[in-house]
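Researcher: Structure for this, please.
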Amino acid sequence: MDSSLTTDIPDALRVAPRGLLLDFGGVVFQTRKLPDGRAAAADLLAARIERAGHRADRTALRASLDAALTALGHWKHASSRRLEPREMTHREIVGDFIAADLPEGPRDVLVADAAEVLADLNTALSDHTVRPGIAALLAEARRRGIPVGIVSNAHSGRSHRRLLARAGLADAFAVQVYSDEVGMRKPHPRMIELAATGLGLTASETWYVGDTMDRDVVAGRRAGVQAVVLTASKHTHNPPFAVDARPDAVFETPEGLAAALAAAEPAVRLGPAASVAPMPATHRRPALFIDHGGVISTSQPDPALRAEFVEFLAALLSRSGEAITTDEVERALDAAKQRHGEFKRARIGEHRALGATITEIDPVTFWRDFAGADLSPRHRAVLEAEAHDLMFRYGRAKSRRTPREGVRDLLEGCRDLGMPVVVVSNTVSGRAVRAECADQGLDELISVFVCSDEVGVRKPDRSIVDEAVRTVVADPARSWFYGDKPENDAAAAQAAGIAGRVIVRGGSTPDDALDALAAGRAAASVPGPAVTHVVDGARDLLALIEAAHPQSTRPASAFAVVSA
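Model: Predicted structure, C-alpha cell format:
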C-alpha cells in the first residue's frame, strides 16, 4: 500500500471481528518526546544513585542515556527483522544500555532497580495523550460485545498499565500483553496469539491494529489475523527496512477505525461443529529421520587419533607462553568427559522429574569449565577462545568410524521414492558429523542435518525431532526414525508422533537387550512401546519403507508391532 490513507472501507473490514487487539503507542496513545525529557530522566537516575551513597555525575549520566536511546533504537529495528524476536530483560536494558558507561557502583544500583528505572523513564521521556477516536472505538466494541486486548512492545508494561489507569481506560481491556512481561516482542506472532487466546478466540477471529509496517503488519500476517489495520503515526510510512507485508487499511486516526467497526456487518458466530479444523497433512510427505553414531557408522576408540589430538592441544596451550604436558592434557580430557557425563545424566533426570528441556552442552562450557576446571587462567582463556574449533577437532578425534553396510542403499532408496532424509544426531559437533558423512560420500543423499549442539537440545527431548520434521515439511504419521538407542531415538520419535520407530542391532544398545525387546521382554531401561521394529541392518528398513510407501504417497496405515 502506498502512503495515501484509506478512505473507502476495504473488504477485509466488511465483517466485524469477534475480538479487537490494539497496539499501545501510535494507536491508543500518541506519544511525544518531551523537550526536557532526557534531562529529567538523568535527574531521576542521579537521585537513585545518590540515595545509595554514590556520587552521581549528571554529565556522564546524560551521555550514557543519549547513547543508550540511540543504540536501543537500532536494536529494536534489527529485532523486528527476526522471525521470533525475544525481549530483553529489564536488567539487560539498564545494565547493557542505560548504564553501560557508568562506573561499577552506580551501574549496579540502577541494575538492581531496573524495573523501577524503566517504569520511571517511560513517562519522564515522553508525554502520552489518548488518540482521537479511541473512546468511540471502545464504545462501539462494547456495544457489539467485542472484547478488546492490548498487544504492545514495551520496556515497561507496568508503566503502560499506569497510563491506562490514569486515562480511565484500564477496565476497557480484557487482556494486556506486553513484551517485557512475556519475554518476546513483535513481530513474534505468539504475542497476538496469546492475546487472542486470552479472549477465548483464535487470531483469525481478530482485527489487529498497530502503527508500524515492520512490527505490527508483519506480526499480524504471521499470526493470521482477520485484518491488519494501521492508525498512522510518524513511524507508519518510514519503516527501517523494506517490508513486503501490507495492511488491509490505514486510517489517519482511530476515528476512521471506529467508523469502520460501526459500519461492519456482524461477525459470524461459529458453533462447535464449525470450529477451526487442524491443518491438513495432505501437502506433507513421509521422511526418514536417521541417527548418526551407531547407525550411519559405527565407532571404535583409536589411540592414534586421540594421541594426535592431545599433542595438538598441548602445543596450542603451550603457545600461550605457559607450557603444559601431554599428561596434563590427558587428565583434563578425562575430567571433561566425566563432567560431561554428569551433565547429561543431570539433564535426563530433570527431564524425567520435571519435564525440563534436555539441553546440550555448549563448546565454551565444555572446554573452559569442564576441561579447563583445573588449569590456569591463561589456559582457560585459550580454551574459551578456541572452543568451537576444538570441539570440531575433538569430535573427529574421539573415535574412528566405519560405515555400516547397507546405509547407502537405504539413502538411495529413499531418494528414489522422493523421501527426504534428515540426520538427527546427539553430538558435540554437528560440523564433525557433516564431515564424517561427506567422507563417506553420503552428504549428497542427506537433505538436512539437525544436530543437538546447534539446536541446543538433545534426544530424547522431542523438540529436536520436531525441528527436523519442520525442515522437510514431513508428515510424522507416515515417517520413520532409524536409531540405535530406544531410550533416546525411539522415545523422542514417539513423543514427536513419528509412526515408524526402528532400532538397529549392532549399535550402542546391546543386541541381547534388543532381542528381548523384539520378543516382548523389554527391560525397564529399554522402552518397549516406543519401538515399532528391530532390524539387523539398513536394508531391512528399506524393505519396510518400500512396502509401506511404494510410491511415497500411500496413505498412512498402522505399523506392525515390534518384529525381529
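Researcher: Any notable elements?
Model: The chain is about 45% helix and 10% strand. The first helix runs from residue 37 to 51.
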